[in-house]
Specification:
The chain is of the alpha/beta class. The protein contains 9 helices and 6 strands, in the order βαααααβαβαβαββα. The protein folds into 2 domains: 145 residues, HAD superfamily/HAD-like (Rossmann fold, 3-Layer(aba) Sandwich); 77 residues, Orthogonal Bundle (DNA polymerase, domain 1). Bound molecules: xylulose-1,5-bisphosphate (XBP) and magnesium ion.
Length: 236
Amino acid sequence: TLQALLFDVDGTLADTERDGHRPAFNMAFEEAGLDWNWDEALYGELLAVTGGKERIRFYLEKFNTTFEKPENFDDFVKGLHAAKTKFYTQLMAEGKIPLRPGVENLINEARAANMRMAVVTTTTPENVTALLENTLGADSESWFEVIAAGDIVPAKKPAPDIYDWALEQMNLTPADAIAFEDSSNGIQSSVAANLKTIITINEYTKEDDFSAADLVLDQMGEESNPFTVLAGDAHG
Ligand code: XBP
Ligand code: MG
């Protein structure tokens, strides 16, 4: 029986990639004196790899192969990524990124229905805190029983590991939960963890393959929530 909703963050709760993560990466590059610029089209290609540190490495492997890597390359990537997180959380604090339509309503209904909730994401934990605090309110992170994020598991989405970890923490089986995702990497991860999955598409992911989804929506509805469609009367 349905007991829990598991939420991806980027692209699902909010459209954070184009106007949040992408400019934050560019600000970090500029601060470090690098002339790299990730425009919207390039960023769409870089989204093939999840995780910010992993994405920087992917960029250098595929799109900027002439860059001479510094000796302590791991620290270099970590430093760049820490700066990116600083800029990203600043952008969130400025309140520039709203939740996607229907998300707040869905979360409120889920709480009213005593649904258990978790966040399951490849992004950095600080970024989740910054988004939730600046949209749903100061204590909203506590509504989520588990924040499964960032480097908690080494193999990020599309691997199922982060969903497996969240389910284990909550002592749930996959049949007890539904995942909310927006991307190919996201649904590969949730489906590999045997979870029913509801997709809300966005500009970067509308061409992705969602044939494994249980439901594909443009956005969450303001009135009738998708988990009631899949689970019958969740208000029971
Ligand atoms: C989205 C991602 C992340 C962010 C960057 O994850 O792929 O890598 O773009 O985050 P999800 P960090 O949709 O699973 O939330 O730079 O903090 O790694
Ligand atoms: Mg996503």
